[in-house]
Write a structure and sequence with these properties.
Blueprint lengths: L1 E3 L5 H12 L7 H18 L1 E3 L4 E3 L2 H12 L3 H20 L4 H6 L1 H20 L17 E14 L12 E12 L4 E9 L2 E8 L3 H6 L24 E11 L4 E7 L9 H15 L7 H4 L9 E7 L6 E6 L9 E6 L4 E13 L16 E2 L2 H11 L3 E3 L1
Antiparallel strand pairs: 1-15, 2-3, 4-5, 4-8, 5-6, 6-7, 8-9, 10-11, 10-13, 12-13, 12-14
Helix pairs in contact: 1-2, 2-3, 2-4, 3-4, 4-6
Length: about 400
């Protein structure tokens, strides 16, 4: 029988698999929890918004919202399910169900994990009000605020000596980052040099909370590997940091060290990636965007000319468009070659011209057929025998 086979990377395959499994009529809380966690991790790992047909920049809070929208659960409920996976892992750890046991006796490990998940499912299905009670402890003291202070001192030897007593010029650079749950804000400040400071502040309702949602103040940043004694340091540069964690109950934790992989907490990279994605998501706004300030409005008698690139991408070609909704970056279907066979091309430029100013004679310029749909891509792949196979 005929079948369509899609060529997907691991993350896209996980998303597709999870979406299919979530369609089951009956699914246990622990199964749903690990399904949501797998999908969230896949979206975060891709580092972009993904629905298998489009790719845009994403972030952790957006990824949670994406899982929520596609599942029908609220964002908070999705976060609770994801937290459930961590609680199950903690239950397993306390009962000695470790990766070492998994390697030694897989059947025993599976049996114990099934028991733990069944216990968690029973508690959830009985409407336990506090999921944190799974491990027998009280609700953890969550992180309320994280303050990061970064300090780099670099010695630079100028070609011309500064003075008889100063061999090096010193660049004293500091940077700070504050992530605060109460004000729902992130503040990033760079003190680049004397009289030069750059600051950015983000206030996003629900967004900052999602960055701190799963952080237990008591256990966060507990382990730092540390650099070995024989590490080779740069004699002309030092980079140090201080991280202060303030909990909802007012407790404080202070971590200090050198700002490098082994000098930072083991779980620092994941937090930084989430913050970076969060800040990058909002970009630089629109007032400096040339596609905004360079936009020319179309007159009702203007002709729309789109420059398109074929797969080889070496040269662009003009086509006339009758659809003003086509934008740069869209894929469209066009007639190509002497036999006018249909081809999928990308729009790289869109311009408006009065009839007397068109760059090519209208009668000699071909027209775009329409925007591409997923069916067009599947049909093209079928013709090229890329994804169509028979069993």
């Amino acid at each position: 029988m005929p079948a369509i086979v899609r060529d997907l990377d691991d993350d896209a395959a996980i998303i597709l698999m999870v979406d299919a499994n979530l369609q089951r009529e009956t699914i246990l809380p622990s199964e749903r929890a690990f399904a949501y966690k797998m999908k969230l991790d896949a979206i975060k790992h891709q580092g972009e918004r993904t629905d298998l047909t489009s790719a845009q920049l994403g972030q952790k809070s957006w990824a949670v919202n994406q899982v929520a929208e596609q599942s029908g659960d609220s964002r908070v409920q999705v976060q609770r399910y994801i937290r459930l996976t961590e609680l199950i892992k903690e239950m397993a750890r306390k009962q000695g169900v470790t990766e070492e046991l998994k390697a030694e006796d897989m059947m025993k490990w599976v049996g114990l994990m099934n028991n733990i998940r069944a216990c968690a499912d029973e508690i959830v299905l009985n409407d336990m009000p506090d999921l944190y009670a799974f491990d027998g402890d009280n609700k953890p003291d969550l992180v309320n605020r994280i303050e990061v202070n970064y300090h780099r001192v670099t010695k630079i030897k100028p070609k011309v000596p500064i003075s008889e007593h100063a061999e090096y010029a010193v660049w004293d650079y500091t940077e700070s980052l504050i992530v605060d749950r109460e004000s729902e804000s992130i503040e990033h400040i760079q003190n680049i040099g004397s009289g030069c400071s750059v600051s950015r502040k983000y206030k996003v309702e629900g967004g900052v909370e999602s960055l701190l949602e799963d952080m237990d103040a008591e256990n966060i940043y507990d382990h730092i590997e540390g650099n070995p004694e024989n590490v080779v340091l740069d004699p002309l540069e030092t980079i140090d940091y201080t991280i202060k964690v303030i909990s909802q109950k007012g407790n404080e934790k202070l971590i200090q060290g050198t700002y490098d992989k082994k000098g930072l907490p083991d779980d620092w990279a994941e937090f930084m990636e989430s913050v970076f994605e969060f800040m990058s998501f909002y970009g630089w706004g629109e007032i400096m965007n040339p596609s905004v300030y360079g936009k020319v409005w179309r007159c009702d008698d203007d002709i729309i000319y789109c420059s398109v690139e074929f797969e080889d991408g070496y040269k662009s070609y003009y086509y006339i468009s009758d659809d003003d909704t086509i934008e740069v970056g869209d894929f469209v279907l066009v007639p190509a070659g002497k036999n006018n066979h249909e081809a999928v091309v990308e729009v790289v430029k869109k311009e408006y011209f009065a009839e007397e100013d068109v760059p090519l004679p209208m009668e000699k310029t071909k027209h775009i057929i329409r925007k591409c749909t997923e069916d067009d891509f599947l049909f093209l792949c079928k013709k090229l025998r890329i994804t169509w196979v028979k069993f």
